[in-house]
Amino acid sequence: AGCATSDEPVEDTALLHRYVDNQNGIDGLDNVRRLLFDDTDRILYAVSADDDALTAYRVADDNALTMLDMISGERARGTLIGASDMTFSGADRDIQVVSFYSGAVAQFRLDRSDKLILQSDLSDQIDIQRVFKQGKPISTQEDKLALLGPYAIVGDAAGISYVAANVSQALVQLTSSQG
What is this structure's pTM? Predict the structure, then answer.
């Protein structure tokens, strides 16, 4: 009941493609925290903690990737700073992303023109400096949503998601915006 190692080469394992951030039209790979395929296995999503981004890639028949869109910054209303995890939620299978430094849950959809669209977001909007740099404790009156330092999320087809928030030391249940 242990781990065995071998110097024998592993057959049937080969490098198919290699993608590097900011090369050959690929972006959004700086400190990726999570990857998810859609139901068809033809769209791959990535959340990047250092790009502060959600990126969508098309997966070709030969498994090669083409970047479709990357959303970050103002297009995401600042909700992706330190993006740490994502899940699909709701009947529309929207992508919900939690971001550690934003203290936010943001919901996105890939539209028919392959653009990522912010559908909704939820945050107490407490300044990052206040949460992570100041020694003064944050009161429950300030931390109303208990979403400070969210690190993990899981969602279901019924539109219910659970978020684990590190700084708030809480597990938060959310409903997905449908539309």
Answer: 0.85
Task: Provide the β-strand partners of residue 99.
Answer: 83, 104
- Residue type (1 letter), 141: Q
Place of tokens 């590097």: 20
Residues in Cβ contact with 88 at an 8 Å cutoff, skipping those fewer than 6 apart? 36, 38, 94, 95, 96, 155
Residue of 119, 61, 121 lying closest to 93 (CA atoms): 119
CA dist., res. 82 & res. 86, Å (int): 12
DSSP string of 29-48?
Answer: -TTEEEEEE-TTSSEEEEEE
DSSP, res 137: P
Most confident stretch, 5-19, 55-69, 121-135: 55-69
- Nearest of 81, 73, 77, 96 to residue 131 by alpha carbon: 81
Answer for the pair 71, 108: CB distance below 8 angstroms, yes or no: yes
Alpha carbon distance 12, 174 (integer Å): 43
Position 11 confidence tier, pLDDT thresholds 50, 70, 90: confident
